Amino acid sequence: MNKKLALAAVSAVAITSLLSACSADGGSGGGGGGADTSSCTNTITKTDLPVVSVWGWYPNMDKVIDNFNAGNDEVQACWTNVGQGNDEYDKFQTAISAGTGAPDVIMLEADRISNYVVQNALVDISGYGYDDVKGDFSEGAWKDVSVGDAVFGAPVDGGPMGLIYRSDVFAQYGITTPPTTWDEYMADAQKVKDAGGPLFGDLGANVPAVFMALTIQAGAKPFTYDPATPEDIGIKVNDDASKKVLDYWAELVSKGLVGTQDQFTPEYISGMVGGDYATYVSAAWAPGYLTGAGVGSGDDSGKFSVAPLPQWDTANPVAVNWGGSAFSVTAQSSQPENAAKVAFGLYADDASLKDGWENQIIFPLNKNVLTSDEFVNAQVGFFNGQQANKEVYVPAADAYKGFTYSPFASYYYASFTEALAAINNGEKTGSEAADELQQKLVDYATEQGFTVTE
Predict the structure, then answer these.
(1) pLDDT digits (tens, 9 = 90+) for 205-247
(2) Do the Cβ atoms of 423 and 250 come closer than 8 Å?
(3) For strand 223-225 and strand 232-235, is the pairing parallel, antiparallel, or unpaired?
(4) Do the domain assignments include residue 357?
(5) Can you say whether the dihedral through the CA atoms of 59, 60, 66, 71 is positive or negative?
(6) What is the pLDDT of residues 262-294, one digit of tens each?
(7) Number of domains observed in the structure of the chain
(8) Helices in 72-129 by DSSP H: which ranges?
(9) Which domain holds residue 116?
């Protein structure tokens, strides 16, 4: 592996930090990847079994670990929460650089997996029980955790996208049905504005993953990458599809139809509660996030609904995804076969899955849940009893074909955020921002040792 390629991933993690705010055999039962299994958050009761160290941050991780350990007579999981998202990634990067200290199994967001594959930090688990669980997940779910033909994670949850909207705002301004196309979306936005209504949506520069998904929906293929040829990468973020999407959103901004507030901020949440935005382009995990942030529990209770994501071509609809996590086996594990049993087994039992979706912690990708009457027909409280899974999210998850992510995703997101900010500020058109982003990514990849094809 070219040293520069590894440095590319290190640099990307450093950028992620800016954006976001033990021995190899230590511990009871013979732990794996350098993490100390004697400091488990959970209690290991089957002390005669091998122990696999796990880093993860799901809110109900304690239940998930206990459920796995209670039902498994081959291996036990020792869980530590070293921080969520970027906090964990920073620690993992430190362990990669040091060559020690990583756990056997680590929870990763799907779009970060390639970042660690390029550093040879993860294990291909396709030979460790993949065939036994392959049928439990869709083609799209597996593609998101795979690079080329190799599988680097066991999928758990995802973010099939839809259009959340304020049913009270729609009713007030005479929008009887949610927009099914992006042309209808702009027309409805103009209608609401002309009547003195609120912004129709929001273009937050801090959600580049959303706009990557929307360009893919329009036909873009931003990255092509295969670890079989690790120094080659295809980059095309300024194709016609990408420019169409960015020019479209730039037009919404310039006409004052959508806002430019960063999402996941107190100001944005306040706007959601106050009805400042008629729609929210988001994913299946959003109801849980919004509920946790206090949306939908006061004066705005019962005022949210969800519809399928608008399309560019209703005759050829495309489902896209935002978010999702998996459990991966690290290259520092001295027991990859046992580690894979844990990776594939965590969040795979009925009790953990049910607790996850009922409490809006995850949107599960396991087909045993996605096809169950209880899940499909669930009446979602945040959406005032709407059967959101049946009407929107399950069809979107079933139709999703998966993405190919960049091996330097964090650098890409940071650069894309700058491009979106330039659009918001009126400094560049969508097409101009796309061209500049393309050049920046090609230059960066070349500097890091990749051979770039466009």
Answers:
(1) 999 999 999 999 999 999 998 888 888 999 999 999 999 999 9
(2) yes
(3) antiparallel
(4) yes
(5) negative
(6) 999 999 999 999 999 999 999 999 999 899 988
(7) 2
(8) 86-98, 113-117
(9) 3-158+322-378
